[in-house]
Amino acid sequence: MGRDRLTIGTFGEVGYLDxxxxxxxxxxxxxDWDGRNRLVQATGDTRKHAERALKAKLAxxxxxxxxxxxxxxxxxxxxLVAYWFEDLELEGRVTKRTLQLYERDMRTxxxxxxxxxxxxxxxxxxxxxxxxxxxxxxYNRAKHARVVLRLxxxxxxxxxxxxxxxxxxxxxxxxxxxxxxxLTPAEVNAVRAAITYWEVGLSYSGPRPDGQLGAIVEVxxxxxxxxxxxxxxxxxxxxxASATPSIRIAGTIVSHRGESTLRQDHPKxxxxxxxxxIPSFTAEAxxxxxxxxxxxxxxxxxxxxxxxTALTTNNVRRQxxxxxxxAGITGVTPHMFRRTVATAINEQGGVDLAAELLGHTDPRxxxxxxxxxxxxxxxxxxxxxxxxxxxxx
Length: 393
What we know:
- This is Site-specific integrase.
- 46% of the residues lie in helices and 11% in strands.
- By secondary structure, the chain is α+β, with helices and mostly antiparallel strands.
- Helix 12 packs across helix 13 (363-369).
């Protein structure tokens, strides 16, 4: 048997063996993706045929991808999406609610435009045009689509299926100019009056009022808490007996598709746990609610169904909208009370205090999303200009 050697690119040195049956064996040591060298060989009628067969066999092996990765640049985009969701569940770092939102956004916003494409067909220009077209319909929809598209394609880059993430180079989305909406004191009292009118039965419609809606609104106004955080308040979170009544915001209500609504043991973010001193109108509403609460255990929810289970945020939103519609008041949402509180505290005590009350670590979030800007400039400027430019008498 004869021997000879030839070097092929980065695959290393190739050796040839003349087999007893007259065929030629080409073989080489191949460094696999896991860093181990393995012997790979192929047979052909001639050295050229054997070399060609060896190259084909090496091409089938993945130098860059782990064996578990079944994706390639020619894989359909839906295969990447399925692989991405499996990876998210494996990591376990996002909540079930977040997974459901990702799935919704991918299915309703991204898939209609990308379902028929392979990964190699998804480039910067296509992603950029897609987001711009979507942004014409809705900035928020485009923002949500951008998040899930970036994350899914980012996984393809990390697993070395794609060389780069096209989402890294799309043009930025421009948020439409908007001013956070907040209620005036007169509008707050109009909302209170409408709820009271409904709760005392003067505007009876639907299930008999149980008095909770008014108390929920008073707690939102007195704490700035989100609706889910308010519905998660327990007996043990409330202190209305001390000189400074307070409520601890330490959880939120979550509703997963196909599962019962339950209390989560931290607010929207773990850092937003806080204890809030409450005003007298909130303390009064809480005392009244505690007096009517049948369950005396510390873990009992302050606001609950007749069976003691958690209320859903959607049902409270629906009930609030129904009651205010009866009074001819439209456009009021539970989150608007949070912005109303932020605006009032900013005017009375400054943005830092407003951010602290809302549980924000960055006051810029409070300014951008929660505080209604006043168009009235501080009147002190008129006095200053009078002092500088007053006409000589």
